[in-house]
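Sample 3 of the quickstart, ligand zinc ion:
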Amino acid sequence: MKPRQLVVLRGRLWVSPEGDAHALQCVARTRKGSRCQNPVEHGQLLGLHEFRLGSAGYVQAYGHPGAADTVDADRWLAQHCTLHDIPEAIDCETPELRRFDIVRDVAHVQAYRSDVAYDGEPAVRAEEAGTTGAQDTITGSVAAVFEAATQLRPRPGYVNGLDYDEWYIEATPDLLRALAQLSRTCHERELANWLEQSSKPLCMEPLDAVLSYDTYPKTWCCRSVKAAGLPCELHVPERAADLGRCTYTHPGHTRICRTAPLEGGDRCKVHAA
Ligand SMILES: [Zn+2]
Ligand SMILES: [Zn+2]
Ligand SMILES: [Zn+2]
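Result:
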């Protein structure tokens, strides 16, 4: 089992940098002068829960998700066993738990949910209530951008990547969505909408008046479609006549022929024959 480094206490996330939070050892000094060997928790009282941290993703944490703690959070944070849960206890080590930080601890954030019990929002709300909300949202959005940016990889361009100057780095849907979220957080609504739209498969039907396979289009339809490569309902081959385009349809082709129809005809030069 992975070490459960995150723990929920007082409805907030804490990190145990030295390892499993469940295995925390009491930091108090015993009467003999050495560090107490007792664990903070006897047995296993709490469970593993998963929380969504806004757009940043998901974290798994050991603890109790509700606001009402089933454990003594003060004792946990002081890192004392039940025996040393007394005011006169003297520590010989510094307690290890520190507040979770979305940027510093981004390694604990996963883009997707895992199979453990999903507990939704409480820890998130607590996280946001803990500091200034807007700053947290921006920090969360930036973390998501960084996370998505780590996934960027070069892809081959035109022909199998034989020409190295045609390799390119594609903006992944994850990155575009993360950028959209960040833009929205910064009140750039128009940019956010465009980025959100760009993260989905789009109808790439060129809208230029003159089309041919030799010219590169300058404007595209850009309506959302079910899958990349498909046309939107306005640009299916059945609508070619209405659009004044070549009406030739090839079984299995989902796109309208790109060549202009002949003067007075309904098909292009190639397809008129
Ligand atoms: Zn102790
Ligand atoms: Zn379209
Ligand atoms: Zn044609």
